[in-house]
Amino acid sequence: MERVKEQVKEIVRPFAGKPTELIQALHRVQSVLGWLPREAQEVVAEVVGVPPAQVRGVVTFYHFFRTRPVGKHTIRVCLGTACHVRGAERVLNALREELGIEPGQTTPDGKFSVEVVRCLGCCGLAPVMMIDEEVYGRLDPRKARQIVREIP
Amino acid sequence: MISLTIDGIRVQAEEGETILEAAKKAGIRIPTLCYLEGLSPRGACRICLVEVRNWGGRLVPSCATPVQEGMEVVANSPRLRELRRTILEMIFVERNHICAFCVSNGHCELQDLAMELGMDHVRFPYRWPLLPLDLSHEKYGIDHNRCVLCGRCVRACAEVEGAMTWGFSGRGIFTLVEADLGDPWGKSKTCTGCGKCVQACPTGALFEKGKATSEQVKKPEIIMEVTERRPRA
């Protein structure tokens, strides 16, 4: 943890003493660590110069910020209108069962995180999910399970 | 000086004063909840809404709206009474306000408002959220079930005590008043234990330990008294 603290200190150095840059500082930290562990939030508060309660407020207000670690791969399941109509709910339920986690959670082995999104911009392929940068379309529960099993 | 009318009464106010302050000086009652003398206004609860007739009947929070020359304010009307009551009902259904089991029963601003606004029943379904109770502090407790998110504790802590311990976490109906990085109150590194937040709290959400039902009497006026005693620059 000490190493992480040192690392965060380094990342937020350009924002030292600039409370108005709090969001930028948090963005920068998350882009490196993937999430915002408690220790990182503490360091940001101290270096940027805002009360810890304010950091907490910002981190929990914006959905973009994560306070839990993310897995090696992020699965984004689309529940937008087109995907919803074509059975995205069943795809999501298959992944829930396959991975044993709810959206917003990470598997205990740290391999997958599941998120729910609203439209990935390729409704013609509905229902759709993305794993990291790869799009998978025309899914059904069986196909979705198969894809996830084949990811190293 | 600025001239305006409130409920048809001609009122003089200083530039920068709010409608609420002007009304108070003129002896006109406007109900409030998140407003507390001595703290910055927040306009969060909307109980103090008034209508500005010559702004096309626009509704504004009187605690946070500065007076303007020639303003015609309606502070009390059947429409406002109904709006305030509706807002109050929504505050009630959001959490678990059960007076009979509350330390503040009989000394509660929320309860007083319900009586003042004639809220004899609630027309929305109660949400009954299951919220935690934090009793980790040596002297005080916080029961989120009774919190109305007025932010008086947050402002008292930041603006008067200067500790900045309290903050809001989450958003919407999931908002909670929490200490520091969401720590148990008793573990807070910034809390001085001064108790101003408890005195500023309008309900039984923040309370002194050892108080039983109806025993918690608050002194929100100490916030004003403390700030008045301070030397000014």
Low-confidence stretches of chain B: none
Count of helix runs of chain B: 6
User: Main sheet of chain B, how many strands, which sense, barrel?
Assistant: 5 strands, mixed
**CATH-defined topology of the largest domain in chain A:** Glutaredoxin
Q: Can you summarize the main beta sheet of chain A?
A: 4 strands, mixed
Classified by CATH, the class of the largest domain in chain B is: Alpha Beta
Calculate Rg of chain B over CA atoms: 18 Å
Tell me what the structure shows.
The complex is a heterodimer of chains A (152) and B (233). With 152 residues, chain A is of the alpha+beta class. Chain A has helices at residues 2-11, 22-33, 38-48, 52-61, 81-85, 88-99, 141-150, and strands at residues 73-78, 112-117, 129-131, 134-136. In chain A, 30% of the residues are buried. In chain B, strands 2-1-5-3-4 form a five-stranded mixed β-sheet, sandwiched between helices. A three-stranded antiparallel β-sheet of chain B has the order 6-7-10. In chain B, strand 3 (49-52) and strand 4 (58-61) form a beta hairpin. The chains are: A alpha+beta (152), B alpha+beta (233).
Topology:
The complex is a heterodimer of chains A (152) and B (233).
Chain A: H1 2-11, H2 22-33, H3 38-48, H4 52-61, E1 73-78, H5 81-85, H6 88-99, E2 112-117, E3 129-131, E4 134-136, H7 141-150
Parallel strand pairs in A: 1-2
Antiparallel strand pairs in A: 1-3, 3-4
Helix pairs in contact in A: 1-3, 2-3, 3-4, 6-7
Chain B: E1 2-6, E2 9-13, H1 19-25, E3 49-52, E4 58-61, E5 72-74, H2 78-94, H3 109-116, E6 133-134, E7 140-143, H4 152-161, E8 166-169, E9 176-179, H5 196-200, E10 206-208, H6 221-229
Task: Write a concise keyword list for the protein shown above.
heterodimer; A: 152 residues; alpha+beta; Arc Repressor Mutant, subunit A; 4-stranded mixed sheet; 7 helices; 4 strands; B: 233 residues; Ubiquitin-like (UB roll); Alpha-Beta Plaits; 3-stranded antiparallel sheet; 6 helices; 24% helix
